[in-house]
Write a sequence for this structure.
């Protein structure tokens, strides 16, 4: 069953903005299997699994666990996530932080001066007792600020998101552990077009991402343009989607606008209209001959 999914990219009923995790249903988990693929008798043959990435969700659609490895029997890493939004528990956690002598001054300042603004605390764990990091997010009118700390509660990153009076994201600024700007993004989004411009720490334009949508909200085309330090175009990539929001073709252009690489995609869908197999082919620009480049299978557990 091919190309018949109600797969709407970046719309309200999509589970994730990540293409490989996007589904149009509520799910418990998604496992992504990368396979070896080869050509035999002019057909793509999918071989053994060479890597696995798994994501598990709670009832609210939040990621509660990630895992990766070679396959289901050979998992090399796991991470778990715990979320806290209850005011009493947030205050209790902050009280514990303030009692620690070795924690950083930034997290103590948040817990003492801005505890009422905290909307969520997210814990990243290797195990029940081993914390890898903590994220504390604060909401203040049209501003959302997330502070990310390491296992010793010292700052790693800060992400600031600014919204307009309609709740649309307008700007995102990322700061490094020294509070210097590392990336800044500007968002211009309407019903038919979304343009995201990314700047580096020196405020130099590095990338422009443009997404074009049909009137029904399904993505039609995505263009990623990258720029050099001197602001010259270094490369351009165009991704075309079919009527259900699935990748159909991906074209690569050099700095002179010369088309030099082409990929096309083939899918298999499940009974709910979510793709469970993707084969990516490299296609010769002149002869249009296809050769399999990669293969991905998804195992989706629904709620």
């Amino acid at each position: 069953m091919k190309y018949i999914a109600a797969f709407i990219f970046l719309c309200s009923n999509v589970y994730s903005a990540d293409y490989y995790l996007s589904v149009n249903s509520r799910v418990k988990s998604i496992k992504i299997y990368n396979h070896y693929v080869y050509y035999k008798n002019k057909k793509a043959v999918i071989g053994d699994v060479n890597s696995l990435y798994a994501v598990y969700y709670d009832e609210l659609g939040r990621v509660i666990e990630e895992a990766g490895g070679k396959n289901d029997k050979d998992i090399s890493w796991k991470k778990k996530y715990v979320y806290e939004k209850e005011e009493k528990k947030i205050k209790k956690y902050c009280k514990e932080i303030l009692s620690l002598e070795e924690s950083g001054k930034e997290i103590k300042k948040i817990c003492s001066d801005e505890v009422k603004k905290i909307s969520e605390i997210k814990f990243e764990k290797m195990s029940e007792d081993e914390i890898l990091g903590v994220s504390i997010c604060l909401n203040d009118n049209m501003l959302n600020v997330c502070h990310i700390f390491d296992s010793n509660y010292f700052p790693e990153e800060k992400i600031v998101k600014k919204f307009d009076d309609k709740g649309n994201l307008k700007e995102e600024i990322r700061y490094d552990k020294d509070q210097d700007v590392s990336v800044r993004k500007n968002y211009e989004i309407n019903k038919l077009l979304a343009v995201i411009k990314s700047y580096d720490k020196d405020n130099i334009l590095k990338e422009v991402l443009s997404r074009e949508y049909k009137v029904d909200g399904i993505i039609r085309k995505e263009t990623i343009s990258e720029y050099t330090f001197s602001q010259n175009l270094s490369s351009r990539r165009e991704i075309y989607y079919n009527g259900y929001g699935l990748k159909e073709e991906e074209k690569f252009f050099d700095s002179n606008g010369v088309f030099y690489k082409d990929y096309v995609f083939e899918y298999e869908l499940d009974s709910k209209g979510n793709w469970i197999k993707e084969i990516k082919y490299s296609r010769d620009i002149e002869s249009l001959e296809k050769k399999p480049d990669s293969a991905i299978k998804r195992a989706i557990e629904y709620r």
Notes: The mean pLDDT is 91. Helices lie at 87-99, 105-113.
